[in-house]
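Propose amino acids for all 320 sites.
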């Protein structure tokens, strides 16, 4: 075999190897078929010296090289889109980390409820004692409002302003008051009867206004604490019947879940986007394979055919 033929066959094998790599990348049957057909054509020229090997060179120039350039262009476009998806995932992960480091979990909320209940019971016992002794001292435990400032945004239930006004309305004749608190007389009596044993039940909010609902342990009696006025009143719990107390998660925890779900969706899209081929390209490749499989095509491979450059034309379209 002379050097010229050896160079043609060597170049042909290199081109077919590139096509093989792209076929493996896209994992598309039609590309594998074209790759296998290209191998057959190569072997036909290599095993039949009477055939003009220059036509093999022409075949690759008109078909294989154009196909490789088209697939490389699609691959590059896909990889750019995949990069954008990875960037979005990275931004989501950064936000997840930020939210995870700053939000209080439901577990934190449940644990601190016990501490808040203890603070409230101690504060109410002091208030009772100070009112009884007519002592004008601050009765509340230190940082008693810290609980609501930490958890109200994420865990307190939203109610209407009208409902909150209704729950905090009282008859002045039915309350005790001093410089630090306002409390219903009957509520204070019941607290004394039950030895100030109550537990935090839930928090509610209407805009920026917040309140806390407490429950007498082992009873169905409730009272409300309105921090803005240090107000304590019986709470008609039936008025909260439209509030759903089930499956409550914090706003930030919900955001984290949504971001993780979004990343799962993006991860799935990455696999599809990486090897995506527009339907128009698939149709074109199917026509290309049909042409390569035609015996008359092999017989007339040296003849210029306008359709032979369809792939080249695709390189200049906006389909990719």
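Proposal:
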């Amino acid at each position: 075999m002379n050097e010229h033929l050896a160079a043609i066959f060597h170049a042909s094998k290199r081109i077919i190897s590139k096509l093989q790599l792209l076929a493996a990348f896209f994992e598309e049957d039609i590309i594998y078929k074209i790759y296998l057909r290209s191998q057959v054509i190569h072997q036909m020229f290599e095993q039949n010296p009477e055939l003009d090997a220059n036509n093999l060179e022409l075949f690759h120039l008109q078909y294989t090289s154009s196909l490789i350039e088209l697939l490389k262009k699609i691959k590059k476009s896909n990889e750019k889109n995949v990069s954008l998806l990875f960037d979005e995932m990275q931004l989501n992960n950064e936000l997840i980390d930020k939210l995870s480091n700053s939000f209080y979990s439901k577990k934190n909320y449940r644990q601190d409820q016990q501490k808040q209940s203890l603070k409230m019971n101690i504060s109410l016992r002091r208030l009772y004692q100070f009112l009884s002794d007519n002592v004008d001292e601050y009765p509340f435990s230190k940082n008693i409002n810290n609980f609501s400032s930490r958890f109200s945004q994420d865990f307190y239930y939203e109610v209407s302003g009208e409902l909150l006004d209704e729950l905090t309305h009282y008859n002045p004749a039915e309350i005790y008051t001093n410089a630090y608190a306002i409390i219903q007389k009957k509520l204070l009596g019941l607290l004394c009867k039950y030895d100030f044993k109550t537990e935090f039940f839930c928090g509610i909010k209407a805009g920026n206004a917040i309140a806390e609902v407490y429950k007498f342990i082992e009873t169905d009696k409730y009272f409300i604490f309105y921090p803005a006025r240090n107000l304590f009143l019986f709470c008609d719990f039936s008025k909260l019947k439209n509030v759903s107390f089930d499956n409550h998660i914090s706003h930030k925890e919900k955001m984290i879940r949504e971001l993780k779900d979004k990343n799962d969706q993006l991860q799935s899209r990455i696999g599809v986007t990486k090897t995506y081929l527009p339907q128009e390209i698939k149709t074109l490749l199917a026509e290309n394979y049909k042409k390569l499989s035609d015996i008359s095509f092999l017989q007339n491979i040296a003849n210029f055919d306008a359709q032979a450059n369809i792939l080249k034309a695709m390189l200049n379209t906006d389909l990719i």
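The CA atoms of residues 194 and 216 lie 8 Å apart. The mean pLDDT is 87.
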